[in-house]
Amino acid sequence: MEKFNIHPEVQELFEEMVGLRRTIHMYPEINFDLPITSKLVSDYLTSLNLEVHTEVGQSGVVGVINNSTGPCILLRADMDCLPIEEANNVPYKSKIPGKMHACGHDSHIAMLLTAAKVLSRHKDHLKGSVKFLFQPAEEGGHGAREMINDPKYPVLDTEPLVDQVYGIHISNHGKLGDYLFPDKYVSCFTDFFDIVINGKGGHMSADTNNPVTIGADLILQLQTIMSRNVSNKDRAVISVTSFNAGEANNAVPAICKLKGTVRTFEKNVRDLIFDRITAICKGIEIEQNCKIDFKIIELYYPIENNSECNEKALKVLRKIAPEATRDSVSPMIGEDFSYLTNRKPGSFFMLSTGCENSIHSPSFDIDERAMMIGASFFVELILDLLV
Ligand SMILES: [Zn+2]
Ligand SMILES: [Zn+2]
């Protein structure tokens, strides 16, 4: 780790941080149902003599360094795991069948708890406040939104009022310490869609429309949206990921169901794509004398980084990892940190742990030394902003 300027107090806490991460890794919990993880986090924050709020947004936890003067900076970690069976054979392998911390949220918790411990020692020198936010249900459950809207403790709007928000997601896109740090969008509009083609069904010899061939035609027409309608200056993805119809060789099914996802960065591109899908469905309805139901399931908005917050974060990151490589291409992922950047200026980046398998893989694991970089980032950022 000689290429990195790790904060000395984080370095001292490395073994403890690894222990925290491995304990959390062994007992992964899903969505909002996080009794073990929430308790571990709140007990740890309480042991640091911080102000602690529990059951925020059902199972979120917030630790606060509350100083009456100066700005309030929010640092975020997510706590939920994925419904994946772990394929790694490591001493800290998941003990819960079918559940795994395959998105690195275990390391996010350990990094932020470690940063909270170091900063709690310096709290009398801080000219401002810090909120350490540990959220449930990032993987599709809108946990950040639940914490923002919790009437008991709306995290952004409770004193001390939050001024800026920062977060890190671990990844494996480069060598240890490399970072994916786009200027603007760190994630994209993430939308799902369901399409149901309703025909009549019947004997294969009957004179009826066939939802299977209509579905095949519809998929091909959806592919033309990217080539004919979306400008080549804009990035977008339209993917049909599921096609279900019929069982028998000799019967035309009554329905065909398609599922898919649309990823975009700009709202006008997103609107254009959904208008085109609607128009294509309508055209096929008339042509084929069938009824098509098209439903959009909105997931997350893009995380939009603030340029001033980016500058502050990049300055700290360059100090800690001066030789690391920066990638700035916006990734087509969904992330509910966007609920925070929709409300407050902030910055978010992805920190590579240099390992082989990607997040959401049953073989995902990390080089735990990356957590020293992440925890040092949080510590140095707060010392830079509030001292
Ligand atoms: Zn994930
Ligand atoms: Zn994640």
TrEMBL record:
Amino-acid positions noted as binding Mn(2+) in the UniProt annotation, renumbered to this chain: 103, 105, 139, 169, 360
Molecular function via GO: hydrolase activity; metal ion binding
Keyword line: Hydrolase, Manganese, Metal-binding
Ranges where the Peptidase M20 dimerisation domain occurs: 193-282
Obligatory cofactor(s): Mn(2+)
Top-rank taxon, per record: Eukaryota
Matching InterPro entries: Amidohydrolase (IPR017439), Bact_exopeptidase_dim_dom (IPR036264), Peptidase_M20 (IPR002933), Peptidase_M20_dimer (IPR011650)
Matches recorded under Pfam families: M20_dimer (PF07687), Peptidase_M20 (PF01546)
Keyword Metal-binding: yes
The keyword Manganese belongs to this UniProt entry's keyword annotation: yes
Cofactor binding note of this UniProt entry: The Mn(2+) ion enhances activity.
Family as reported in the entry's similarity comment: Belongs to the peptidase M20 family.
Name of the molecule in the record: Peptidase M20 dimerisation domain-containing protein
Origin species: Stentor coeruleus
